[in-house]
Structure prediction request, 64 residues.
Amino acid sequence: MNVKRIFGTILTLLGTGGLIYTAVLLFNTTGGVKDIKALSIFGILGLIFFFAGIGLIRTTNDES
Prediction:
């Protein structure tokens, strides 16, 4: 059981959830300043978590 790979999977899932939530906000937005701030915050955090998780999964070696 590799803790880094599990943590990478959790980060990837959180990032995917953040990106999906950003897409939902994008389609339900009215164009206000608060909506744009929420879109940018959740979108950027989603991207960071997603790419950090993918990078952690890819660079972790399997040891049996």
Residues 33-59 form the longest helix (27 residues). Residues 5 and 58 are 9 Å apart (CA to CA).
